[in-house]
Amino acid sequence: MLGNFTYSNPTKLYFGKDALDSLSAELENYGKNVMLVYGGGSIKKNGIYQKVVKILKACGKNIVEDGGVMPNPTAEKLYEGAEIARTHNVDLILAVGGGSVCDYSKAVSVSAYCKEDPWDKYFIRFEDVSCDIIPVGCVLTMVGTGSEMNGGSVITNHKQKLKIGHVFGDNVFPKFSILNPEFTYTLPKYQMTAGIYDIMSHILEQYFSGTDDNTSDYIAEGLLRSLIVSARAAVKNPEDYEARSNIMWTATWALNTLIAKGKTTDWEVHMLGQAVGAYTDATHGMTLSAVSMPYYRHIMPYGLEKFARYAVNVWNVNPDGKTKKEVAEEGLIAMESWMKEIGLVMNISDLGATEDMLEGIASATFINEGGYKILDKNEVTEILKESL
Amino acid sequence: MLGNFTYSNPTKLYFGKDALDSLSAELENYGKNVMLVYGGGSIKKNGIYQKVVKILKACGKNIVEDGGVMPNPTAEKLYEGAEIARTHNVDLILAVGGGSVCDYSKAVSVSAYCKEDPWDKYFIRFEDVSCDIIPVGCVLTMVGTGSEMNGGSVITNHKQKLKIGHVFGDNVFPKFSILNPEFTYTLPKYQMTAGIYDIMSHILEQYFSGTDDNTSDYIAEGLLRSLIVSARAAVKNPEDYEARSNIMWTATWALNTLIAKGKTTDWEVHMLGQAVGAYTDATHGMTLSAVSMPYYRHIMPYGLEKFARYAVNVWNVNPDGKTKKEVAEEGLIAMESWMKEIGLVMNISDLGATEDMLEGIASATFINEGGYKILDKNEVTEILKESL
Q1: Inter-chain touch B215–A10, beta carbons under 8 Å
Q2: How far is the C-alpha of B224 from the C-alpha of B208, rounded, in Å?
Q3: Under an 8 A CB cutoff, do A246 and B214 touch?
């Protein structure tokens, strides 16, 4: 724990089967006009929409609806949402959905009263917020992004062919988030598994960086161990409440800034995966799983100590009588075997990537500098080839 | 992760060698009258007092001093402090010290405008706060209690022979805390080591309870592993910044509510240790260490699964070919050996307890019901005998 840092996370979380019961009391803290933001309408099928609307009405709120938030929310949609929020004098934006709906709601919250073009200001110029911010609350129905307790917001601009994330400060974090693991039961298994690997990858991106002895890495190891156990149980029985609740809680703490405190981070797997996603439109978590093993095998020699530690502390590899390299390799084999066991996609060809795309994907891959090896272009291409 | 729960922790933390530089900006959020609370004056010797006063003056604050907070802050002192805060229209209470100074400052913050007797209201009747609360900020100079990021406040009433803790809600948590590991360097080694075991005990009290698979326990294991490594390094070299910073950060997360979320907890070691403390006036952390091994050996058969898990996940015990009991015992042996290595007190006789006190200490020991075995009076006496 060497660096200077600030930790602040004001989001209040209500967790458990009865979590939605807390919404009424929270609503008392805000004015009458509530903007209800949601995605493609699955919340109408599983009844969560009806439950939320009933509570809003019982609390005497005026509801302004903004549905149809797409998996990758667009700048065009953001302009519309900001206009709706402003013209209806919205007092609270209530996001009901997964990471995209939360991300979008945060972007709207800082755009409604923004005097400039919010895409340019926040996502091109990465400027701080200088206007009034509409408070955001979340009712989470999908797990993985951690958007329920952080300032992250990713917006896509199709005209400019850009997908950019801004990490806002704690004044933009959701004021409250309602986390009921049962609300995630109706998610298809493929999406659940992809979400699990998204969580895993969030933790590993922060873990595989730096050489100091750092409490954050020990917390990360704890989260990883919990996730590994719960993922196995959830894949066997998606309605295993214990497993789904552990996964939900792990997801929140995997990306709410805690495990990055005082240390450097990598995020290269996300760079590779996002480039694959741009070419294949595949599910985010699966793009990460499909590039992970070739990436980690490639950088392992440069971060041997940490990979050996990972093998022992996370995968229970017995190091006795083995070289560091053997221990590290055994850890990656255990990881690979777990990934296959829970049904993750292990090759980008299974996501629709073809050999002729590799050059383009490699060019689209941003090179980060926090990992154990700063990749060059040839290495990126090599890793992508291995991932095919 | 089975229970319903709420998580909210609004304390903003500034961590690192330059953390005090953030004080000026924080002070802008509060009015002119700052009550400066500290203990016996060690902060004047190590220069922290002078640094803080310089910043307060540079920010144009009126300083109202309230020094002399004792290691176990008293109800009498609380009455005085509340009077000072009220008559001086204090806008911010700035606690500069360890857990006692923070605890006391929180108690003053909810007592200044309390219409009733605050001791009776908060510490006898455990009522919620119903008056205005003066915001509290902390500059931490001792590590262990976690008071810098929670609502805990322990006050002692000598007339009534009572020492009682109230856990206030998040409206009483410090608004901000400044954590510079270097500020803890001047603490004598005995106090540092006692603080380390206080942290260890906070984690174990929350860990050794319950049988479900729970993310909180995995996070606890991570914190324990970090603490074990850092404690060894800090004892060798108290100015090892990496170690001291990891210990400081672990202390905060050991008792800021996170690792108790969704689970039951025990706290029986604290009940035993506090009773020993009442008879010997020994340092809190050492009373905990002196009773821990007999207590854990006594309850181990009732929580065998968890103790075996503890041995493997925290102490790297290799379970191959061993019974659960053998694994669990090996874990406790490893723990005991670490405790001796870092210089913890292992017997209550070394703290001044004598055989003729045992009856009284046993009677003063409150019996909790969250652990693996609800003790009866004979068991308490037995454990204390073993601790002699």
Answers
A1: no
A2: 13
A3: yes
